[in-house]
Amino acid sequence: MNYATYRGEDVDDRAGLQGVEVSLSVETAGDADLDAWLSNVEDRCPVTDNVENETGVSVSLD
Q1: In a domain? residue 3
Q2: For residue 52, which phi and psi values (nearest 5 degrees)?
Q3: Rounded to the nearest 5 degrees, what angle is found at the Cα of 49, between the Cα atoms of 37 and 1?
Q4: Alpha helices, DSSP H only, in 1-62?
Q5: Per-residue model confidence as pLDDT tens digits over 20-54
Q6: Backbone angles phi and psi of 55, in degrees to 5
Q7: Is residue 61's pLDDT more than 90?
Q8: 3: which DSSP letter?
Q9: What is the DSSP letter of 29?
Q10: How far apart are CA 9 and CA 4, in angstroms?
Q11: Which SUPFAM superfamilies does the record match to this protein (predicted)?
């Protein structure tokens, strides 16, 4: 993230994040299929969906 954009400085960089990295440490009771679990989490996560797919944004003043 380039904070110069927020300050109104003239920069070529995007204002938003260049990437998102998540690292999880999971403890389970038993033999859980963590790969299947993680796949389900990624499929169901609305944030992942918005980041990976084009999402329209509408900004207005009242």
Answers
A1: no
A2: -80, -20
A3: 110
A4: 3-6, 34-44, 46-52
A5: 899 989 998 888 899 999 999 999 999 899 989 99
A6: -125, 125
A7: yes
A8: H
A9: S
A10: 5
A11: OsmC-like (SSF82784)
**Residue 5 contacts by C-beta under 8 Å, 6 or more apart in sequence?**
11, 13, 14, 15
* Residue 59 maps to a domain: no
Q: How far apart are CA 24 and CA 3, in angstroms?
A: 27
Q: Are 17 and 29 in contact (CB under 8 A)?
A: no
CA distance 23 to 35: 14
Position 51, amino acid? V
Residue 56 belongs to a domain: no
For residue 5 the two structure tokens come to: 């954009």
| Domain extent for 46 | 20-51
The two structure tokens encoding residue 21:
């990295």
